[in-house]
Amino acid sequence: MTADSEPVKTGVVLTGMPGSGKSTVGRLLSEQTGLPFLDTDALIEAGESKRLAEIIADHSPEGFRAIEAAYIQSIQSAGSVISTGGSVCYSSEAMHHLAGLGTIVWLDVKPDILEQRFVDAFDRGVLIEPGSSLADLYDSRYPLYEQYAQLKIEASPLTAEEVVSLIRQQLAL
Ligand SMILES: Nc1ncnc2c1ncn2[C@@H]1O[C@H](COP(=O)(O)OP(=O)(O)O)[C@@H](O)[C@H]1O
Ligand SMILES: O=C(O)C1=C[C@@H](OP(=O)(O)O)[C@@H](O)[C@H](O)C1
Ligand SMILES: [Mg+2]
């Protein structure tokens, strides 16, 4: 950093649909770069001493969104790899906070691939309306992920290792 330039942002914030690989890619990226790793789902589960599905059942989807946004806004670790939960895109405050902690990288994975990675989205605690498909959820969230992304990775055909390599190449990490 020089006196007349912005500080270099080394943090990476992974966003995208549930099953897009944020936790897997984040862990690998952290191992390869040495940047600390934080998974916001794990942060919430540890803070609430409950599994995500239980928190959602106890508080309703809207309640979970508010809890998630509050935990995310409490994070102060700039310069880390942060894997977010897929529903963080609903909170503009949380997304703006994350943008201050690192480059927001959107792992875009198409619904047909996501479906192959899920046994049951409801079991995983994904905030999806009963009767809706992952494709519906993808369409409704697409503009939100797009709005906040500073880098979009077309991750559908890629292995987790290939996604990590692309991110490292694009961000010079
Ligand atoms: N690029 C990939 N290709 C194939 N499977 C993947 C890839 N990335 C993640 N997975 C698998 O998909 C599932 C969901 O990955 P996960 O990292 O938990 O996603 P997210 O944190 O975005 O919900 C896991 O079983 C993981 O092993
Ligand atoms: O997209 C969602 O509605 C959710 C995704 C989950 O995280 P992953 O994206 O890591 O699966 C978790 O935050 C919560 O169960 C809600
Ligand atoms: Mg995850």
Automatic annotation (TrEMBL):
Pfam families: SKI
Protein location: Cytoplasm
GO BP term (any one): amino acid biosynthetic process
GO cellular component term of the entry, any: cytosol
Keywords associated with the record: Amino-acid biosynthesis, Aromatic amino acid biosynthesis, ATP-binding, Cytoplasm, Kinase, Magnesium, Metal-binding, Nucleotide-binding, Transferase
Annotated positions binding substrate: 41, 65, 86, 141
UniProt cofactor note: Binds 1 Mg(2+) ion per subunit.
Catalytic activity of the protein: shikimate + ATP = 3-phosphoshikimate + ADP + H(+)
Residues given in the record as Mg(2+) binding sites: 23
Pathway(s) where this gene product acts: Metabolic intermediate biosynthesis; chorismate biosynthesis; chorismate from D-erythrose 4-phosphate and phosphoenolpyruvate: step 5/7
GO terms of molecular function: ATP binding; magnesium ion binding; shikimate kinase activity
Cofactor: Mg(2+)
UniProt keyword ATP-binding present: yes
EC number(s) given by UniProt: 2.7.1.71
Metal-binding keyword on record: yes
Protein residues bound to ATP: 19-24, 124
Sequence similarity: Belongs to the shikimate kinase family.
Assembly and binders: Monomer.
Function according to Swiss-Prot or TrEMBL: Catalyzes the specific phosphorylation of the 3-hydroxyl group of shikimic acid using ATP as a cosubstrate.
HAMAP family referenced in this protein's UniProt entry, alphabetically: Shikimate_kinase
Name of the protein in its database record: Shikimate kinase
Organism phylogeny: Bacteria, Pseudomonadati, Planctomycetota, Planctomycetia, Planctomycetales
